[in-house]
């Protein structure tokens, strides 16, 4: 079960000592209201991920390692304009780990901070740089970004 909260992050997060990031390229084999299937290259790892429909901010998720070459082949078969390019950084806040994704390509300028929780009721410290929650806004899901691009939305 994936229990995730997502936030638009202020560019001020880039002033933190983020340490080394890692580049991710991902694309969607299919996506819709019932879930999605994603292929990802994360460094030298290939991953195939299937996600079910969302229930609030929870959903079933299965992630399977696949050969790096197979992941590259699957990505190459997808339209280039639908691929997501981002650099992911790990940030500790209040004893919990956040992922900060700095998007590139046609999503340049978008920064998303996300935290994965162990329970839907789990409390967490929201950092100042997490300026607006977009957990329930489908425009900020990666599958939506892949298909429709991104334009900044006024707060």
UniProtKB/TrEMBL annotation:
Pfam families attached to this UniProt entry: CYTH (PF01928)
Residues annotated as catalytic: 28
Signal sequence interval, chain numbering: none
Highest taxon, organism lineage: Bacteria
TM stretches of this protein: none
Residue ranges of domain CYTH in the record: 1-147
SMART domains for the chain: CYTH
Protein name: Adenylate cyclase
Biological classification of the source: Bacteria, Pseudomonadati, Pseudomonadota, Alphaproteobacteria, Rhodospirillales
